[in-house]
DNA sequence: GTTAATTCTGCGATTACCGCACATTCTTTG
DNA sequence: CAAAGAATGTGCGGTAATCGCAGAATTAAC
């Protein structure tokens, strides 16, 4: 769905991203002052970053706090093209995160479920997908840390 | 650092969260209209959700797009209290995500690094932590899907 | 049933946002 | 290298959103 080009970001773009990683609702005026641009220019740059899907500004929550009692990571071994299997997994609604990896799993998939029967159903559906050879599920017991302000380089 | 109580969220709070999961920069006026409150009340509720750390509004990016070429998930087996080890891991700057799990790993840890030597150094530091018995690293090759609008229940 | 605390509404006063015309800088390209 | 074209930035006026606060309404506690 997204065709990536390794976009080049200048120092101003990176500082804007870092500011919004700290506070996604920062005003354009505040951003402009922080990076030394006019308000209109700052606004244009934020819009560009959003439109190009380099960055998105969203609310993030601990799923367990908003009614999803079962979360899990599923390690998956595939046959055929892992990227294609990854695309198929990405279509599953309960899946919020898919990465292709090197190691004893080909894909790591995070799923968000309401309860145990729901998780069971998701695992069943995942294992039935074409190209999925085996899977191993890690049920989440506690979310210890979750942050997004890793900055830029 | 965060003392969790399973906070009870009413329907309005959940709808506000869902709206901001779609667009973290939605105006208070728009939120108010959507949930049927005055602008001031909507603003107060958003502030409360932010202050109580139930929700945070932030910019999220694909790390590879902003200069971090090496990302990985590290599966960790521990001895002693996994939660304590998790807390220690959470203090590592390059670690952005820590979950305690049930399964063949006790903890899953996501790390964001600039390059291979950086990743190597992080893995070394992680393995030296007290309580870490063994670790297995899954280097990310591609981020297939990443989304945050899983809604509420 | 009264009190206290929380939450909501309804405003002005202030600030931010948006769109647009024009200036500036950076890239092609002949 | 000069001119054309594309980005990117500035300034500003009109509109809309935000903020702070006083008082009403609702909810919880006793």
UniProtKB/TrEMBL annotation, chains A, B:
Gene3D superfamilies assigned: 3.30.70.920, Winged helix-like DNA-binding domain superfamily/Winged helix DNA-binding domain (1.10.10.10)
GO biological process: response to amino acid
Pfam family, one: HTH_AsnC-type
GO (cellular component) term, any one: cytosol
Single Gene Ontology MF annotation: sequence-specific DNA binding
Domain named HTH asnC-type: residues: 9-69
Keyword field contains Transcription: yes
This protein's UniProt keywords: DNA-binding, Transcription, Transcription regulation
UniProt protein name: Lrp/AsnC family transcriptional regulator
């Amino acid at each position: 769905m997204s065709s990536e080009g390794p976009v080049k970001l200048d120092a101003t773009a990176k500082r804007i991203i870092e500011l919004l990683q700290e506070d996604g609702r920062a005003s354009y005026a505040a951003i402009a002052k922080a990076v030394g641009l006019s308000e209109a220019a700052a606004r244009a740059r934020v819009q560009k970053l959003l439109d190009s899907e380099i960055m998105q500004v969203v609310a993030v929550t601990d799923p367990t706090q908003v009614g999803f009692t079962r979360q899990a990571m599923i390690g998956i071994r595939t046959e055929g093209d892992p990227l294609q299997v990854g695309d198929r997994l990405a279509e599953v609604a309960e899946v919020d995160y898919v990465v292709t990896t090197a190691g004893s799993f080909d894909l790591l998939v995070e799923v968000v479920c309401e309860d145990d029967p729901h998780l069971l159903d998701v695992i069943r559906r995942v294992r039935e997908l074409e190209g999925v050879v085996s899977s191993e599920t890690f049920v989440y017991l506690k979310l210890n840390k979750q942050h997004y302000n890793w900055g830029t380089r």
